[in-house]
Amino acid sequence: MADTVKDIKGSYPIPVYHYRVTIDGDDSLAFSEVSGLGIEYETTTYKDGMSFKTGAKHIPGQPTPPKLTLKKGIVKNGKQLYDWINSTSLNTVNKKDIQIDLLNEESHPVVTWQVLNAFPTKLDAPSLEATSSDVAIETLELMANDLKVIFA
Asked: Residue 93 sits in which domain range?
């Protein structure tokens, strides 16, 4: 049982609202949502001569490339995401490393996700509606080569 403040802090879950996204060393963009930070493997089914008795075997195959979604509010002079996806053409793309830090109350990273060689695959404009006063949110979908998780 946790008796001290340090023990309680170490065993208490970290809230998801305090995070920082850094794209190629630039953390000036504020994202309202980050999703897709998962590690996944394809599975391969292997059947041998005894499969009729023991059943098929399932083994891990190739890793699935990470697919991230970043959402942010549109601001007057904020066209960085548009410029990035617009720089993509046939067989050429500007890949960037992205780091997502989940921060504690002192703004120190507790968990870091390093997304390697990410590139944009889709940029969605917000839905526009005359009867709504919601913030205009653009959505950027990315694909990457690898995802590494680092615990502080």
From this structure: 5-37+45-151
